[in-house]
Amino acid sequence: MTSEIKKQTETKMAKTLENYKGTLGKIRTGRAHAGILDHVQVDYYGSMMPINQVATVNVSDARTLNVQPFEAKMAGIIEKAIRDADLGLNPATNGSTVRVPMPPLTEERRKELIKVVKAEAEDAKVAVRNLRRDANNELKAKLKDKEITEDDDKRGQDEIQKITDKFIVEIDKLTIDKEKELLTV
Fold it and tell me: In what residue span(s) does the Ribosome recycling factor domain sit (predicted)?
């Protein structure tokens, strides 16, 4: 009974961690990486598609991405989508290829991004703690309904706390890594 609650909670916490990783991937560090364009949507014959489904995104050097559309006429649409994505990028079409230079980050912008990373980390931690609270409430309800013993309740809460601690440590680790990445010039 408690193992079911534990499994559900751990699965939900893992999803929270994956969402946090995705959010960190969108935060630009000044170095080119293909993942920065993953959430950019392109108008492809009337339907919105992720950029990686209408083009190949490659890193040509440390500060430049090359986007090669599968259809040459999509280059202008892709360029506009990247410009409108509010990533601070200024793409340029060169024939059928869209070149996306990564502007260097200023010291001020790096500090702003670190604040954003810390805020996102706190949001992820709050989400994990809310999942812990929900699981503990579920255990208490089962104890009240006499479905589990007090020992099972205590053991379940201890296990949920260990899972919570594990995910909080992982979030902290990812945050520290991203901060180091942002501070690297």
Answer: 22-183
Single pTM value for the model: 0.69
Q: List, for residues 125-172, the tens digit of each pLDDT value.
A: 999 999 999 999 999 999 899 898 999 999 999 999 999 999 999 999
Q: Which of 22, 5, 3, 8 is nearest to 137 (CA)?
A: 5
d(CA 144, CA 62): 59
Q: What are 89's two structure tokens?
A: 């990028």
Instruction: Give 68-112 pLDDT, tens digit per residue.
Output: 999 888 888 888 888 887 777 888 888 888 898 887 778 887 888
Which residue is associated with the tokens 């935060």? 27
* Domain boundaries of the chain, sorted by first residue: 2-26+106-183, 35-101
Identity of the amino acid at 131: L
Q: What value, to the nearest 5°, has the Cα angle with vertex 109 and ends 66 and 167?
A: 85
Indicate the class that CATH gives domain 35-101: alpha beta
Question: Got the DSSP string for the chain?
Answer: -HHHHHHHHHHHHHHHHHHHHHHHHHS--SS--GGGGTT-EEEETTEEEEGGGTEEEEEEETTEEEEEESSGGGHHHHHHHHHHTTSS---EEETTEEEEE-PPPPHHHHHHHHHHHHHHHHHHHHHHHHHHHHHHHHHHHHHHTTSS-HHHHHHHHHHHHHHHHHHHHHHHHHHHHHHHHHH--
